[in-house]
């Protein structure tokens, strides 16, 4: 077992909350979290629905390993049709909230319709009810968490909520839990905002007491934790330096997108790296990094907790930003920094804190600023329009834009649309560094070829968490491949995408895959859920999830023409570094990828593929 | 030789493996809400601090109990709640200066750390060494060693 066996269905239009049994047939075919919630979504909504309309649904979901002693077993996902992309969206978060929901006895919560006024859902084990959130509307994530704990006199409540960005329907608004963990990408927070849903507060005291074979489960999870502890990346690199360990590495191999992907190496990388975070500041002699932090059940503990320089221009006289808080992680440091040519670590952390406080994806926000700065330097956007001078490298502009965007003020409203819509509006659609409307993360696919294919085919738009071939192409995990060639990459991307879907569906963190293969995950799932979850079955579940997502997108109107990259990556060769002279070789990889997937030339699932996967 | 649970908060990452292990040991379920050790996350400072019963020698809870439900495990030194004797009066929860004895509404009894009979599950589960189970007479050994290192084992030392 290990599933709670129950889901909550909340009709926001009618204001009703109902319990229903989990569809166990689907649970066995799609496992949980990303897989299972996506199955519910594709069965229940029209793929062509407007993502911000009441007809869209929004699902918070845990996996069978969520809330157990399996390392990193604290993950949850938010699944919906995404407003940034129009594709299926699934954003994954850690912290403690997901485990709390599971411990309250629920596998997932499905929200339907739209509430007439702001509401939040309060869950205390079996009891769940909607409450008026009018007094919380207009409040940040941080204030919402504090207010709900105080109102219910329960400091042990865990809260997942939106801030101003979600309320204002910034198209890349995030849902944030435990102050600084986020279901960050694809605008899931905007969907919550469109439904007038402010938060879910949950307290779970029932726990997870139904793993299939407790003795075997304790044994196998103990053994697998040992693998994480003894691995160089999960046992040393990530806890010590966090994901930021990558900044200098990716810069050196020439794959750090810089100034809206004009360059692929950033001269200021060292100033915003993991090493910079542990070097005492010239201004106050203190280190930026305070400590690392784990999410629920995680024995890696890669999270960064930092303190800003109180004298920095962004936070002078703003004590609410002086305490220890989350960041910087690599993706945020890149998007807010290198993507805009900004090398001011404190300014990056300020923008990152605003993203946490008001619920906004720092990747899409930062990358959109990259496009804004390029348009400014071209003279397309002016100081009068923007309210500030915005050349590449301006920390002042970055900080001002973060405030404006979260609050929906001035030009911030347009930044909140994301780079695709913004660049199209100002006549330069080619400058949006995105796929399917979602901005790239921190790896340039001219320098890491496989990532170009992974981005182009990702079911939620450009993303590093759907097929992280960086592991193989840069770090040599599980085997080293050449980052500069296209050879073998279609098969590599397929393998990473399928395995990642299975990791996500289990309810564990994808960072375990630096040390674990699916062969390490399957026995943990089997001990928790049943012997049928063999490696082979888990591989098939991953592939099934991927194809289900793809099929939804195809029915939503996407086709092979959307499996592409911006012209800059296909036509403008890298100017420096090991990839100098290279563009991404997507045209060479894509047909082979379709073939490996069992799709036709248009990227549609063939009948044989449907048959094989039971779709 | 008796041992003590020893907590080094500096090593704690807040993963709650200890809380899950404790609840699994006592309830057969992963349920931090019923854990006898709690990790406190002071987010303003970034500190995570595990806290549980220190097994006082002259234990307030033991002396306060009107039905003598709390007794000493002679092998481990743990003050142990006998569930069949406990009447759930909660006087021990009031008398404990540290808050580490707590009522469990589902059972109508109190619960506290009993050192798992000499093999504490929290210490086994802790991935960072923040919780260890060590010689009761030498809980200061590591701290002494680090000062000894500073004073006498550095190149600058005479």
Show unreliable segments of chain A.
none
* Rg result of chain B: 17 Å
Tell me about the largest β-sheet of chain B: 2 strands, antiparallel
What's the shape of chain B? globular
Structure classification of chain B: alpha+beta
Largest sheet of chain A: 6 strands, mixed
Secondary-structure class of chain A: alpha+beta
Distance between the termini of chain B: 37 Å
The count of β-strands of chain B is: 8
Judging from the principal axes of the Cα atoms, what is the shape of chain A? globular
What's the arrangement of strands in the largest beta sheet of chain B?
1-8
Describe the protein in words:
The complex is a heterodimer of chains A (615) and B (158). Chain A is an alpha+beta fold and 615 residues long. Chain A is built from 25 helices and 17 strands. Chain A has a six-stranded mixed sheet, sandwiched between helices. A six-stranded mixed sheet of chain A has the order 8-7-12-9-10-11. In chain A, strand 4 and strand 5 (88-93) form a beta hairpin. The longest helix of chain A is centred in the last third of the chain and has 22 residues, at 535-556. The two termini of chain A are 24 Å apart. Chain B is an alpha+beta fold and 158 residues long. Chain B has helices spanning 17-27, 60-64, 91-95, 121-125, 141-152, and strands spanning 3-7, 38-42, 47-51, 70-72, 79-81, 102-104, 109-111, 131-135. In chain B, the strands form four sheets. In chain B, strands 1-8 form a two-stranded antiparallel sheet. In chain B, strands 2-3 form a two-stranded antiparallel ribbon. In chain B, a hairpin with a 6-residue loop joins strand 4 (70-72) and strand 5. The model of chain B has no long low-confidence stretch (mean pLDDT 96). Chain A binds chain B through residues 67-69, 71, 96, 99, 103, 156, 179, 203-209, 214, 218, 225, 229, 239, 290-299, 301, 305, 307, 323-325, and chain B through 13-17, 20-21, 23-24, 27-34, 43-48, 125, 127-128.
